[in-house]
Give the backbone structure.
Amino acid sequence: MTSNELYNGLMIAKMFYFYAVTALLLLSIAFYLVFKKKSITITLSLLDILILIYLAYNFLRLLTTNYSSFQDDYFIWLVLLTVLYFLWKYFITFDEGDKLNKTAIILFTVFLLSGLLQALYGILQLYNISPGIASNQFKVIGTLGNPDYFGGYIDSVAPFALGIFLLAKNKKIFTKFFIIIALISFLGCLFILPSTLSRASWLACGAGITFIFWHKYHFTEKLKTIFNTKIKMVSVVAMILIISLVIIAGVYQIKPESAFGRLLLWKVSLNIIKENSLVGVGFNKFDVVYNNYQADYFAKGNGSNTEKLLADNVRHAHNEYLQISAEIGLIGLLIFLGIIFSAFKFSVINNDLNTVKQLTEKVIINLSAKAGLIALLVFALFSFPLHILPNLINFVFLLAVTSKTNNPVIVKEFTLNSLVIKLSAIFVIAITSFFAVKYVQLYQAYFKWNDAFMAAKGGYFNIAEKVYENLNPELKYNGEFLFFYGASLSAVGNYNEAIKFLEPAKQKFSDPNLYVTLGQTYDRLNDFNKAESNLLHASNITPCKLFPKYLLAKLYYNYNMTEKAIDKANEIINLKAKIKTTAADEIKTEMKTLIEKINASPVKAGM
């Protein structure tokens, strides 16, 4: 599910595929319900209600967030996945002996096979049989384009597969085919996971597997028997802490720079939360505001040399709990944690009875789904699986499975008569049809956007600018599009018009390249103050990058501010390069020449 014909086709193709499949599913079900004569009884558990509240709260924050749009992709994801959550619950049923029905078996088999196919594709990439689909930047990525995203997907499937195989072992439940698929899926996932070099995915998978072993071998009962005094309990807790610290220290040594980078990211994220604690900065706005906070952090003289070297263009917090808090506040985080608490609160295991005798198909599916959820929730401490569509789909699917197989208290139950069902179905058909037409148009826009992007990449800015002009009505809500459109206008010398798109882009996009382009454009318009302001902002977002500093040095020199020009040139010359490149060496050489030129001048203007 990728496309070289769409802009950012690696991610966007998956999104449109998801939209198409969901639309077809909704239309099929809606047409079926139009002709259905029976009433439907709907029951809502606490988990169901909290999920609806979470969606409603996100909708409210979307309405109250400046420069947001109902076409926000992440909001559309949440809406569609909430609908799918209830559909998955509807299709997963059990008979009186807690055995799965055929539809549920098909759903779980597809889930297991999706993980197996990803693992097999990763193995082919590992042994150079099939190349990755994201150039040569990463080797093992499955179809997700990044080893971190790939590791998250594997994490959601591997513990679930192990649970099916291990908990059903030596019991006459499930079919042999289903158990074999689970075993092969687990082994495939386990084999490929180390090659991702994603430490977070290793820890997450380990947490999910531990949960399965804990229930399989009844560790709770054994620990209560062995450690039956306070001294023994304290000793085992201390031992677990020591082992955990040793594991964390060992994992840290693999990529220490990445760990330090996370610490900076979380520090700045906490600053966002501190200033917007209750309701956050706005729905899906983390990637818009974070770079500005990071720039402010360094502009105020904060940050060590290591932090300046590791600072980068950031779009995610690499911690879902921090990102939720930053975007929709502590209120949103509490609702989300309530969902997680409700998913795990209602156990299907009666602790007063023999655990082994309770391992029905329903119970095993429940424990396996919870293991997958645990893996994703641990992974979410260090990454952003809930913002990668395939991983988010798996997360919601596992939530639906957990909800269906728990033994929760029913909070609300009501019956829809035939007339209400028919009217609701007609409404769904109308909304889905409108949605489908709209997103066919959007698909075509992304197709043309890619044409314009490739034209600009080849230096044909006049062609790109004309395409962007035609796409503006359809994509004007997208900050990245506004940046590309404005950059093309600037490249062809239409500076005043470029500003009309580059400035609004700042409300929806905060890539340092946007501020670099603004700085260059304002320089062409002889607006020194705005040129300097934007270039300084770009430089403070990523202090290790030479190009914004290089443009500042040139700007100061052109305006006869020789002291500032020399200071900036010396800063560039002495700056430790994150990665040595020919371009960086050329910039440093040019800065040395600039200093010599200024010093050789008989009159140093501005000094």
Q: What stands out?
A: The chain has a mean pLDDT of 90. The chain has 24 helices and two strands. Strands lie at 40-45, 410-416.
